[in-house]
């Protein structure tokens, strides 16, 4: 699992870390039962404060993505919903609406690219 953060971003570091873990889960890079790096190891590898990583892990725990246990660390839950189902449904709805407006695939991709840079 690779977590990338942008120290210059206005998005808080803990949110960036949590988003990185979520993204890894959605892409299938990590799955149920996989252990995340210890908070200390991750903090050192991405050059952030330990408490920032702990805050990100707490957010992921509250979302139901991970279990946090002493001595066992952070583990991806077996029954987690990565959000991929909801994301797929949103994508289908986007495509449906775009088609109703007469957009072809190239225009949809342009719209996505334009939106993702904002």
From TrEMBL:
<dbReference type="GO" id="GO:0003677">
    <property type="term" value="F:DNA binding"/>
</dbReference>
<dbReference type="Pfam" id="PF00392">
    <property type="entry name" value="GntR"/>
</dbReference>
<dbReference type="InterPro" id="IPR036388">
    <property type="entry name" value="WH-like_DNA-bd_sf"/>
</dbReference>
<protein>
    <submittedName>
        <fullName>Putative GntR family transcriptional regulator</fullName>
    </submittedName>
</protein>
<keyword id="KW-0805">Transcription regulation</keyword>
<dbReference type="GO" id="GO:0003700">
    <property type="term" value="F:DNA-binding transcription factor activity"/>
</dbReference>
<feature type="domain" description="HTH gntR-type">
    <location>
        <begin position="11"/>
        <end position="79"/>
    </location>
</feature>
<keyword id="KW-0804">Transcription</keyword>
<dbReference type="InterPro" id="IPR036390">
    <property type="entry name" value="WH_DNA-bd_sf"/>
</dbReference>
<keyword id="KW-0238">DNA-binding</keyword>
<dbReference type="InterPro" id="IPR000524">
    <property type="entry name" value="Tscrpt_reg_HTH_GntR"/>
</dbReference>
